[in-house]
Amino acid sequence: MMKRILSAAAIATALSAAGTAIAADKTVTLAVDNMYCSACPHIVKQSLATVAGVKAAAVSYEKKTATVTYDDQQTTLAALTAATTQAGYPSHPLN
Fold first, then answer.
1. Fewest CB atoms within 10 Å of the CB: 41, 47, 75, 81?
2. Euclidean distance between CA atoms 45 and 21, whole angstroms
3. What is the pLDDT of residue 22?
4. Is 52 inside a domain boundary?
5. Chain segment 26-59, per-residue pLDDT in tens
6. How far apart are CA 92 and CA 29, in angstroms?
7. Pairing of strands 91-93, 65-71
8. What three-state secondary structure class fits 52?
9. In angstroms, how far is CA 40 from the centroid of its own chain?
10. List of E strands, the chain
């Protein structure tokens, strides 16, 4: 009986570890339209920060880009571009 409990615990631990191994942070660079003033990058960054799973966002006014690191188990590229578009800054991936 004890052997079965230990085996079940080992299997549960292995499955739990496998589940976390599947999740991965991804980084994407978005081309962002409509950034015409120095306040625009702040608004774009705030819009991305509201998306669950976004770990970091760096927005460049000069390059008109946003580089976003996110958990691909919590959000999608489509959700990122939707967030910037809803804020008035349509975007699409560069890479």
1. 75
2. 28
3. 66
4. yes
5. 999 999 999 999 899 999 999 999 999 999 999 9
6. 8
7. unpaired
8. coil
9. 20
10. 25-32, 54-60, 65-71, 91-93
